[in-house]
Structure formats: structure tokens, C-alpha cells
Amino acid sequence: MGILVSGILGPMKNKTGAVIGRIHRGQNVITQLYIIKNPNRKRSDAQLATELSFGILNNFLSNIQGLVDIGFRKKVKHNSPVNAAYAYNFKNAFLDVNGQIVLDYPNLVYSVGNIEGPESPVLNTDGSSLFLSWDDMPQSEYCSYSDLATVLVYDPSEKGDLIFENVCPRSDLSVQLDVSPLIGKDVHCYISFCSANEKSRGDSVYLGKTLVSVPLELA
Length: 219
Fold this sequence. Notes:
By secondary structure, this protein is of the alpha+beta class. Helices cover 16% and strands 37% of the residues. Strands 1-2-3-4 form a four-stranded antiparallel β-sheet, with no helix packed on it. A four-stranded antiparallel β-sheet has the order 10-9-12-13, with no helix packed on it.
């Protein structure tokens, strides 16, 4: 039974009907009656698949949170950059491989925006070095020689990564990176550009999957 502490217009304590009255941090609060769902209720296959997908994608985004925080900063309205990236990626993030849900790495992005990506990018590896190159492009508001390249090298087996942030200007047309910490790993590579003042960013671009091998002199 609910108790009206100071008459019909005063605060209420305890439960009456579907509401609960209480004092919280000095304020008189009336809340909906909480209904505890049956914890033993069996979840459907669709619910289990959704939970699994949520965990897989969130693990990927959380592992590169530094990139995501910057790359999705302008997409945030009422949530975090990671949540915004999750909502943006979810529709195209998964593949069904022999009944298993796996990430579709070529369709994942860690950054979105108007700055142009690389023109005809090429990815090569030689031992513990990774080589990236791209073609020259006409200059415009969203494509400048001074734009800075960021490269992500992601190892899904260890959920580890190497991030080379603002590693070179677009005008270099190529970059060589030391990826020796990931020797022996199949890695997924991405690149994105931002303006020289880092205020504008572009979509990240998937470059491909490659094996980081042992240098010949060490083999």
C-alpha cells in the first residue's frame, strides 16, 4: 500500500498499483513498477545471433577505439563514437561462413568524411615491411597534397593492431612501414586521409589482406 506522506499533493512512499514512490537524493520520485523477466527463458536463435554479432563487431571497434573516436567524432549526436561506428557498420559488417558469423573486413570502416581516399592504392609486403602506394590526383577542396595518411594494420587472430597515424602527406604517393611485431600473421590493412589541420577526415579504405613474413636474412 502506498502512503501519502503530506496529503494528496505530497510525496508518496511504497507501492500502489503499477507505480513506486520513493525519495532519491532528496527528491520525491515516482517510478514504474519493475517487472523481473524470467532469467531462465530460452532465447531464440535470432536473439543469440544478434548478441554474437554485437560482441564481434564491438570487439573490433573497441580494439581500435582511438581511431574510431577521431574518425566518427562528427557522426556523434547523443552517443559515443564507438556506438556511432557500430550503427554505421552493422548492416554490412558480417558474413555467414559455414554457419558461423564472421566479420566482413573489406566492408568495415573506422572513419567517415569528405576527404578523398587514395587513388588506385596498391599494397605489397616484403618481409617485415609493408609498402603502400597510390596515384596522384587533381587538387580540390577535399583532396590536397598536404592531406595526411593514417594506416591501420589489424591482426584478427590476436585482436591486435598497429596504427600509423598521420604517417605521411598525400604528396609522397607511397609509404614504407615496419610491421615486424606482426610477423607470421595474416593482417587486414586500411588507409584514410585527413586534412593537414586534422579538422576534416575521409572514409577509411580497405587495402586487402596480407601475410607479414619473416625477412629472408632471418629465415
